[in-house]
Amino acid sequence: MALQVKSFGSMSEAAAALASDRTARFMSGGTLLMRAINEGDTSISMLVRSTDAAYRQIRSESARIEIGAGARMVDILANRDLAFLHPAARIVGGPAVRAMATVGGNLFAAAPYGDLATALLALDAIVTVQGAYGSAQQIPIEQLLQSRDRATGLVTSVTVPRPASPDAFRFRKVSRVKPKGVSVLSIAAHLPLAGGRLSNARIAYGAMAPTPIRARAVERALEGRSLDAAGIAPGLAAATEGTSPATDALATAWYRREVLPVHLRRLLLGETG
Amino acid sequence: MTKTPVQFRLNGSDKAVFVDGGENLLNVLRRGVGDMSAKYGCGQGTCGVCTVLIDGEPQLACLTLAETCAGRSVETALGLSDGPNLHPLQNAFMDHFAAQCGFCTSGMLMAAKALLDRNPSPTREDVAEAISGNICRCTGYEPIINAILDAASKRGGQASGG
User: Fold this and answer.
1) Which residues from chain A sit within 8 angstroms of residue B67, using beta carbons?
2) Contact B22 A2 (CB under 8 A)
3) A213 and A250 together in one domain
4) Number of Cβ pairs closer than 8 Å across A and B?
5) What pLDDT score was predicted for residue A134?
6) Strand order of the sheet with strand A202-206?
7) Using CB atoms and an 8 Å cut-off, which of residues 102-141 of chain B contact chain A?
8) What is the DSSP string of B78-129?
9) Cα dist. A48→A11, A21, A105 in Å?
10) A139: domain range?
């Protein structure tokens, strides 16, 4: 069955078109949606696209950076202000996928995909969603991830604060094949220090649940602690709390839980390996 | 069935085709204009055998909506040689036995071209990274990496062992 493809010059028009038909899907980079179409997914009858230039733009302000949802991994990698996101963007797929896959699409990638979304979650990103009618709405990324299967509207941009310092934001992806491999798991951490103590740390996991999740138990255990072996011990003890990883071709749920604290320790202590 | 006209440049020549809604670029290349150099492998963006250059960037033809190629420039392995004269990458692939069954070769060549076009003197790690989205089940990759490094050095780049 042939699909209908509709392109719109503005995000609001695209959002309205998307809302008008339950079988319509918004197409960003295509790396997820074209897979489904190639596999013969007949639940999709219309592809909605946006040619709005703002959809791809990255705008830097003093404290925050707004990334258009249509910005691709290569666009992030070409932007110096987003250097803190480069480790996460660099390990998404191979070069061809990075030239196609977008920030917006990554927010909707099912586990074990969605490494960039994991990084954005640890940064407390704010997502701008254009509704079918009326103005755009800003919601925390965690809320979007939790409700993404029933989300309405269109994600137009993601706004991230600059990390407290370059070393304060860390990302680690664990995969069996290098340099390109799908995640066994990924961990992102924003670790602001105040007087040598962690304050409002954010830890996010990828591939440890159906969507990227915050590790709130770890965050609580790390509050006010120092970033050394003794300081992070309570955090490591709580590492697997709240996780519900899948068993897939890459790893069993048991394995993912077993290795998570090891990689969390390495990330927090800045160890390689 | 509604067809949409799409015009694009393929290896320097203008092409005009009618595409189905939702049709991918790989289909259009192979069935629409008869360029069989890009292969169909997984259809999921995992194997890299359909890698082509779109406006100079490596992209996967199987995941590219054909309609998005309107007005853009597409390069495939078919456009690499200049008449009977092979591209330096193609010669290097032959010299280093970098093709066995050959199914991955056109995708490898395009991924390699994308690398050398922006980085004429890549390290071994650069090459491994550039072809990391392309699966080869015959060679073990080493002959392919050697071929790309050799092509780079012959084109004037100072390839390092890295």
Assistant:
1) 5, 7
2) yes
3) yes
4) 90
5) 75
6) A169-175, A183-190, A202-206, A213-214
7) 111, 114-115, 128-134
8) GGTSBTTBPPHHHHHHHHTT--SS-TTHHHHHHHHHHHHHH-SS-BHHHHHH
9) 10, 10, 14
10) 53-161
ipTM for the assembly? 0.93
Residues of B in contact with A39 (CB under 8 A): 43-44
Query: What rounded mean pLDDT belongs to chain A?
Result: 95
Taking the Cβ of residue A47 and every Cβ of chain B, the question of whether any pair is shorter than 8 Å is answered with yes
CB nearest to B130's CB, from A37, A49, A95: A95
Answer yes or no: do A102 and A191 share one domain: no
CB B22 within 8 A of CB A3: yes
Same domain for A18 and A74, yes or no, is no
Averaged confidence pLDDT in chain B? 94
Q: Which domains occur in chain B, in start order?
A: 3-78 (3.10.20.30), 88-154 (1.10.150.120)
Facing B48 at nearest CB: one of A39, A49, A94: A94
Q: Which of B67, B130, B133 faces A93 most closely, judged by CB atoms?
A: B133
In Å, what is the CA distance from A62 to each residue of A66, A84, A160, A171?
11, 15, 11, 23
Cβ-Cβ contacts under 8 Å for B16 (sequence gap 6 or more): B5, B6, B7
- Could you tell me how far CA A197 lies from the centroid of its own chain? 27
Residues 6+ apart with CB under 8 A from A254: A247
Indicate the pTM of the whole model: 0.94
Total domains in the fold of chain A: 3
pLDDT tens digits along B7-44: 999 999 999 999 999 999 999 999 999 999 999 999 99
Which residues pair with residue A4 across a beta bridge? A46
Taking only the tens place, the pLDDT of each residue in A172-189 is 999 998 888 899 999 999
Tokens standing for residue A225 = 């602690």
Residues A189, A146, single domain; the answer is: no
- Domain with residue A152: its CATH number is 3.30.465.10
For residues A27 and A113, membership in a common domain is answered with no
Say if residue A172 is in the same domain as residue A157. no
User: Which DSSP state fits A148?
Assistant: G
Assign B158 a pLDDT band (cuts: 50, 70, 90): very low
Read off the CATH number of the domain in which A245 is found: 3.30.390.50
pLDDT tens digits for B31-80? Answer: 999 999 999 999 999 999 999 999 999 999 999 999 999 999 999 999 99
| 3-state helix/strand/coil string of B60-92 | EHHHCEHHHHCCCEEECHHHCCECCECCHHHHH
- For residues A81 and A111, membership in a common domain is answered with yes
